[in-house]
Specification:
two-stranded antiparallel sheet; single chain; 146 residues; alpha/beta; 5-stranded parallel beta sheet; Rossmann fold
């Protein structure tokens, strides 16, 4: 299976940072395009963990996504696009993966989903519902996929 498009979901968490680094390394080694997605639900995380109402702080969240969470892309040497989607992260990830025909989805093992103890983590739900390969990266992963 050739991998030409990699979708990585980010939310500013340490696990999401690890997923971003891993995805960049994979995209670089395969010559693949990286699609970086953040989903704006009812609550979002700003500044590494502070949960805030998304609608009231949309501009600040998008700015942090573009300037901080996606900063490693600027010097990565990989082709990429960034997307901010509204709604439930699981639905957004699956929808964008289907719409853009991503070959693989990469997610951090735990993010800022406050409902995870009740509903399961976003990564777990995506892995169960996706028809595409899903790679789940723990926050302590330092190795690249080479």
């Amino acid at each position: 299976m050739a991998i030409g498009k990699i979708l990585v979901g980010v939310d500013g968490s340490l696990a999401s940072e690890a997923a971003m680094r891993w995805s960049i390394d994979l995209a670089r080694s395969l010559g693949a395009e990286l699609i970086v997605l953040h989903s704006l639900g009812l609550l979002s995380s700003l500044h590494h963990g502070e949960m805030i109402a998304t609608e009231l702080h949309r501009g600040a969240i998008v700015e942090e996504f573009e300037s901080e969470w996606c900063a490693p892309l600027l010097t990565s040497g990989v082709d990429y696009q960034t997307i901010v989607a509204d709604g439930n992260p699981v639905s957004a990830i699956l929808d964008v993966a289907a719409r853009l025909d991503a070959d693989i989805i990469v997610l951090g093992s735990r993010g800022h989903n406050i409902l995870a103890p009740l509903l399961g983590s976003t990564s777990h739900q995506v892995a169960q519902r996706s028809t595409r390969a899903v790679v789940i990266i723990p926050p302590a992963t330092q190795e690249s996929p080479d």
